[in-house]
Design a protein that fits this description.
mainly beta, Hypothetical Protein Tm1070, Chain: A, 10-stranded mixed beta sheet, globular
Length: about 900
């Protein structure tokens, strides 16, 4: 029987149309604060967030509880098109106020109307700080108090968001209404709030559980309007007949069809069911599949776009997942049945009535046996089979995660969406517990939680591409390495946007990449764009839903060999903005170094970026320096320390704070004695344990002597502490722990950190933690590893902490793109086990090396010391591959532990290394 089932599965899979592999979706947080979305339509152009400096832990559904569930924060209005800056609309005078709820109504070409429950004071009119409701009809420019009973809060008990047109509406006691009455709320009674801010009583009290599509009729249960029952009430307070008699404790959510019929989704005894009501008759629509466990998510339902029917998902452990559609007068019609059983958690209907966005759980076991989940997404069209792939949004998700802005019809074409992870980073009091990072995101992601913006269509930016003469007789070139990971040929559009020379025109080419091809584009500006001299950014857009991998090396040559830096691509949406500033803890390297900053416009409207340096005593240098970013272009600042009026000998960090616009920064520190550059990406916050996989005090090949400098920065106006813990890769020892305190905005540099701070030699991993879930402004940390020449100059590379995207557990794989086979270079591969404590068997790891055609040329297994690391020096020659493939892809698949990895490609003549990060491969 099992053989027959497997054979049937093979037939099903073989009949599916060919598709591209799933993509890992990179994203950019829209704010670095803890944020909660307002109740609002997901198609609104503008959306509001309640933002706080501390997280708000919502206790769950609390029906019938009168005290307001408030948080301290600010109400911020965002433009999903990115054409205007986010605005704090309440309070107007800074600081935070108590907020129990917020809601936004928006009509075509009309200013958003906003309702907020708060204790805010408007020019002295609320000195006792009573909780009340404020209304704005002009997007928060002006406010007025709504005439509802003062002192009453709103007993919102939000449930899991399973989809539908509104965000955070399930269980909400404010609902979106019509143009004339944009809000209906339950607080000390049931009220409709008019467009002028006045309030109309609807004749009693009750709990809101749904509405019609137009926001003119509402479902209420309990209270004086519907004791132990469900009824419909309209904006004039007219009540319909009893629809269903239910206990007040029952969890219900529903909607009203255009003809006045009602769908009710009921949660009883731990399981949901869907029932349809028409003309006093009751028609069961759906219950959980036979054999499904008792669980809230074994059945979920949302209205069709026009509210005439229902989309229904049924699933369960070891059961298929079934999508059905129901219309009045019929039975639920199955649309597809997926025997792989994807854990669908939400569905969202498109305006055409023929498209759905399917949102699923992706469980990810971690090294400490905990399982956390991240969302994965697919757009499905009526008539198609179940989605064959789900693009993964590696984001640490909480129970109340939800889409904030979403147009199902447009996202397949690349329109951005906004998603709230509803999670805060897990707090660890020190570096000893397991790191257990949140679910991974893109390699360029700097914060893996919060409210983020992303796109299903890939668009990459390489911020640094050059063919230009530089200082000290250098001439810089950029080589590109591209990979098509799919099994079909794809077309890639590459646009060169020059920043130098001034006035140079942009150029564009189309490339076709064969299946599984890795292509090297040497001296890319000349070979691809016929540019003799210039520099700028490259924008890469694959066709349709295809995706590519990309890395680069920018370098110059000397009599001894070459030296340069590796720069990876950045997702176009992953940018800094007015509510999401960035920091660079290793920005200013001190004497004999210069720092260059390249800023790329990512919104097409230009902007203004405020830059501020921080040194050993806090903020230093100029406080008024701003970069003006041209629309669609780049700005370059050479000699950053001098521009900011920082003393040349001083090391320091950089605060990068957009005042307007959205920008992608790239920071490059250059050793004046050797001309060797190091590229620094933005820092990672560290409210949970981060790991720098290798810090070094050890001699190496070709006379090298490797050392690591550590850079720390406190981006807060308060004192902050950071705990550092070091354990050598191959030594049976406990971690050595050092605690440091940093002044407000203090930058600290620790030279040769392994020896000077820990008294150790060799190679070690460094784990650190600062702040916590309640404070994400902890100390930022990064490092640079280098060797010196006879002049005292250095050749080195960035050694950053790993983000969550750069670690893999059993069943997952990491991939490294970038190392090239060349007789003048050697490639080293490093593997590090990120689990907290040594003990148990050493994790086994499978290594595969593929060539530029996608063929596997070598495969072997190795062990990684528990909580330690291992390096394979001169990997290709050691494995009998000679100089190696022209372009290699290295795949690392752990059987145990939690493994991080990186590779370096070192010039044998200069000893200059280039760092290539590992990335988590999509499943």
């Amino acid at each position: 029987m099992k053989t027959l089932r497997l054979f049937a599965l093979a037939l099903v899979l073989s009949s599916l149309p060919f598709s591209l592999p799933a993509r890992i979706i990179s994203y950019a947080p829209v704010t670095d604060r803890h944020a909660t979305p307002a109740v609002q339509h997901r198609m609104n152009r503008h959306y509001a967030l309640i933002e706080s400096d501390t997280p708000f832990f919502f206790p769950g559904p609390l029906p019938g509880v009168p005290p307001p569930l408030t948080r301290r924060g600010r109400l911020v209005l965002y433009d999903s098109k990115g054409e205007s800056e986010p605005r704090v609309i309440l309070p107007k005078t800074g600081g935070e106020v108590s907020i129990s709820m917020a809601a936004v109504w928006e009509g075509p070409e009309e200013k958003p109307r906003v309702l907020v429950g708060t204790d805010a004071d408007l020019g002295g009119d609320n000195p006792s700080r009573l909780h009340r409701f404020l209304y704005s009809g002009d997007a928060g420019e002006t406010w007025k108090a709504v005439a509802t009973p003062a002192g009453f809060g709103i007993a919102d008990g939000f449930y899991e968001d399973t989809g539908g047109p509104f965000v955070r509406t399930r269980g909400a006691q404010v609902r979106i209404g019509s143009r004339d009455f944009p809000f209906v709320l339950s607080s000390g009674g049931l009220y409709a709030v008019a467009s002028d801010g006045s309030a109309r009583s609807l004749g009693g009290s009750g709990r809101l559980i749904g509405s019609d599509a137009q926001g003119t009729r509402f479902l209420v249960m309990g209270g004086t309007l519907a004791p132990d029952a469900v009824r419909v009430v309209d904006l004039d307070g007219r009540l319909g007949p009893v629809i269903e008699s239910v206990p007040a404790s029952t969890q219900l959510e529903g909607w009203i069809t255009p003809e006045g019929s009602v769908y009710l989704e009921k949660l009883q005894t731990g399981a949901r069911s869907l029932t349809f009501y028409r003309d006093g008759a009751r028609f069961p629509v759906a219950t959980p599949l036979p054999g499904a466990p008792i669980s809230e998510l074994t059945l979920l339902a949302i209205p069709t776009w026009d509210y005439w029917g229902a989309w229904i998902v049924q699933r369960g452990t070891a059961l298929p997942t079934v999508l059905s559609r129901h219309f009045p007068g019929g039975t639920a019609v199955e649309q597809w049945r997926d025997i792989s059983g994807p854990e669908v958690e939400a569905v969202h209907a498109g305006a055409s009535g023929r498209k759905l966005l399917i949102q699923v759980h992706r469980p990810r076991p971690q090294a400490d046996q905990r399982i956390f989940r991240d969302p994965a997404l697919a757009v499905w069209q009526v008539g198609e089979p179940a989605p064959p792939r789900y693009d993964e949004l590696f984001l640490n998700e909480g129970r109340l995660k939800a889409f904030v802005h979403l147009d199902v019809e447009a996202i397949a074409g690349g329109e951005p969406f906004v998603f709230d992870s509803a999670a805060t980073p897990t707090f660890f009091p020190g570096p000893l517990p397991s790191p257990a990072p949140p679910a991974p995101g893109g390699g360029d992601v700097t914060q893996e939680w919060g409210v983020v913006r992303a796109s299903l269509k890939q668009k990459l930016v390489l911020p640094v591409a050059a063919r230009v003469a530089g200082a000290y007789g250098s001439f810089w070139r950029t080589d590109l390495v591209l990979r098509n990971p799919s099994e079909r040929e794809i077309e890639l559009r590459i646009r060169y946007a020059p920043s130098f020379p001034a006035g140079a025109e942009a150029r564009e080419v189309l490339l076709s990449l064969r299946p599984d091809e890795v292509r090297i584009l040497s001296d890319v500006l000349l070979s691809l764009f016929a540019v003799e001299s210039g520099s700028g950014a490259l924008f890469l857009t694959p066709e349709a839903d295809a995706a590519v991998s990309l890395t680069s090396r920018t370098y110059t040559t000397s009599a001894r060999g070459s030296f340069g830096m590796g720069v990876g691509a950045v997702e176009f949406l992953n940018r800094a903005s007015a509510r999401f500033p960035l920091t660079f803890s290793g920005a200013l390297q001190g004497s004999n170094f210069r720092t260059n900053l390249v800023v790329t416009d990512a919104a097409g409207r230009g902007g203004e970026i405020l830059l501020r340096a921080a040194g050993s005593s806090g903020l230093t240098g100029r406080s008024d320096f701003a970069v003006i970013l041209p629309p669609g272009g780049q700005s370059q600042i050479g000699g950053l320390g001098q521009m900011l009026q920082v003393e040349p000998h001083q090391t320091g960090a950089l605060l990068f704070s957009p005042k307007s616009g959205e920008a992608i920064p790239a920071l490059i520190a250059v050793d004046n004695r050797t001309n060797d550059p190091t590229y620094f990406p933005p820092d990672l916050p560290s409210p949970y344990v981060r790991t720098i996989p290798a810090i070094v005090h050890e001699d190496g090949a070709h006379g090298s002597a490797w050392r690591t400098d550590l850079f720390l920065f406190n981006p807060s106006a308060q004192f902050r502490s950071v705990t550092l813990a070091v354990r050598r890769w191959n030594e049976p020892e406990n971690e050595t722990v050092v605690n440091l305190n940093l002044l407000p905005y203090e930058s600290k540099t620790i030279r040769d950190v392994l020896l000077s701070a820990f008294g150790r030699a060799g190679v070690a991993r460094l784990r650190y933690v600062s702040g916590g879930a309640a404070d994400t402004t902890g100390v930022r940390v990064t490092s640079r590893t280098y060797t010196s020449d006879s002049s005292g100059g250095t050749y080195g590379f960035l050694m950053p902490p790993l983000n969550s995207f750069q670690a893999a557990g059993p069943g997952e794989s990491l991939e490294i793109l970038g190392p090239l086979g060349d007789k003048d270079f050697r490639t080293n591969l490093a593997l590090v086990d990120l689990t907290a404590f040594p003990g148990g068997p050493a994790p086994r790891v499978k290594i595969e090396i593929s060539d530029e055609k996608g063929a596997i040329v070598d495969s072997f297994e190795t062990s990684v010391p528990s909580a330690g690391g291992v390096q394979f020096g001169d990997l290709f020659r050691a494995r009998g591959l000679g100089s190696g493939p022209a372009a290699a892809v290295i795949r690392i698949s752990p059987y145990g532990g939690l493994i991080g990895a990186f590779a370096t490609m070192t010039d044998n003549g200069t000893n200059d290394p280039v760092y290539f990060a590992a990335g988590l491969a999509s499943k």
